[in-house]
Write a structure and sequence with these properties.
Helix content is about 35%, strand content about 30%. The protein has a five-stranded mixed β-sheet, sandwiched between helices. It has twelve helices and 18 strands. The two termini are about 15 Å apart.
Length: about 425
């Protein structure tokens, strides 16, 4: 079975979908695309019909690209209302061999959440910090001799009233949800390396309307904070000052402006007709001053908030998100953070933009989860994989949960 998965990132600015195949711990991108987001504002569904249509559009485009219908996906949910807690659980190893198997890992994770999920909350992720057999601490205890298995994990919850409208829009499109996650986890798994696995750090994703700061302790997400500023604020500044429409403002940001005015040239100009019908000649230097001012505000606010997120020593800070693709962004990042921060670098062919970091990483994250529990996965049948040429999984929860009725749950995935 080929390990092929789809990943959907429901952002305020755009909805992104990636289909990829894991081959020897490397991700091969089969499709990566985005459509303008509709019906979402500040991490909330404000118009389900518009969001349903936007989801339908992104899946249609992806299906046209790969020639197969996509029926299931991993989905990101907003971090604004996420709650974190540390939980633990323990189970006896009861198989005849007396060794830890994938189903034992599923059992101990389920045990860790027993009685710890309020009725008004839904589980987004359960992230093992470590497993313990006797006095031995392990990241993957499979195939180890044991009489009992213990886990310490981070439980991430989100209010049902926030989660369910997103899930219902997917159900309206007959899309099965294979797994839920915060986009922060995708960002981490996209940029994961030896340093991130063993130290404390922060990943900063500058999205369209918000900037998400996520703290990781040895690979485990422990805290998030969301700042209500993002790339669209840059567009809004340009639009307001020059009275341009949003599409023209975004075009200028992406094609003329520099993130730092140091190398900007007054001789480079564009002429755009504004909302009043007046032709405005705008030069790169003036435009870059506007862009730099807003990016400077976002970065300084992020720097301030990072200091409040953890008392532990921070060893790395990684920036991602579409705005980090701006020309000369490294200059302003270095000016504010010094050498303590870097921009994430995506290497996958077909999705080499930081706007796809969450989608790409979530497929890798799901591959890790499946491997931990000895599960195979694929969103296409063997016959469909043949059609792809050479591309589900059900989950269970408590009675009364919308996830049990629509999709299932993450413990068995």
């Amino acid at each position: 079975m080929r390990k092929i998965m789809a990943s959907l990132d429901l952002g305020t600015g755009s909805i992104k979908l990636v289909v990829g195949e894991m081959i020897k711990q490397k991700l091969n991108v089969l499709a990566a695309l985005e459509v303008p987001s509709k019906g979402i504002k500040k991490g909330l569904v404000v118009n389900p019909d518009l969001l349903t249509d936007a989801i339908k559009m992104v899946f249609k485009k992806a299906e046209e690209q790969i020639g197969l219908k996509i029926k299931s996906t991993i989905v990101t949910l907003p971090a604004e209302s996420a709650e974190f807690s540390v939980v633990d659980g323990e189970v006896k190893i009861i198989n005849e061999e007396g060794i830890v198997k994938g189903n034992d890992i599923s059992r101990v994770l389920q045990n860790a959440t027993k009685g710890k999920i309020p009725d008004n909350m839904e589980v987004i992720s359960l992230l093992p910090s470590y497993f313990r057999i006797g006095e031995q601490l392990l990241r993957d205890p499979k195939n180890k001799k044991a009489t009992s298995l213990m886990v310490k994990a981070v439980l991430i919850l989100i209010p049902k009233k926030i989660a369910y409208p997103f899930l219902e829009c997917l159900a309206n499109n007959n899309i099965e949800i294979v797994d839920l996650a915060l986009s922060s986890l995708g960002d981490y798994y996209e940029y994961k390396n030896n340093e991130t696995e063993n130290k404390v750090g922060v990943i900063v994703n500058i999205g369209a309307t918000t900037t998400t700061l996520s703290v990781f302790n040895k690979g485990v997400l422990t805290n998030c904070e969301v700042i209500d500023l993002g790339g669209q604020n840059v567009d809004n500044d340009i639009s307001f000052i020059y009275k341009f429409n949003q599409s023209d403002a975004k075009y200028l940001k992406e094609n003329l402006a520099l993130a730092h005015k140091h190398a900007a040239q007054a001789s480079l100009c564009e002429e755009i007709t504004n909302k009043l019908g007046t032709i405005v000649k705008i030069n790169q230097y003036e435009l870059s001053e506007i862009v730099m001012s807003r990016i400077n505000e976002i970065l300084n606010l992020a720097k301030k908030q990072i200091n409040h997120l953890t008392k532990k020593e921070i060893s790395y800070i990684i920036f991602t998100g579409g705005l980090t693709e701006s020309q000369d962004f490294p200059l302003i990042l270095k000016e504010i953070f010094g050498h303590n921060a870097k921009i994430g670098h995506i290497t996958e062919v077909g999705a080499r933009s930081n706007q796809y970091s969450a989608c790409l990483g979530l497929i890798k994250y799901y591959d890790y989860k499946a491997s931990l529990k000895d599960k195979d996965y694929a969103i296409f049948s063997p016959n469909e994989e043949e059609d792809l040429g050479g591309l589900s999984h059900k989950i269970t929860t408590s009675e009364g949960s919308i996830l049990s009725k629509l999709f299932g749950y993450f413990f068995d995935n």
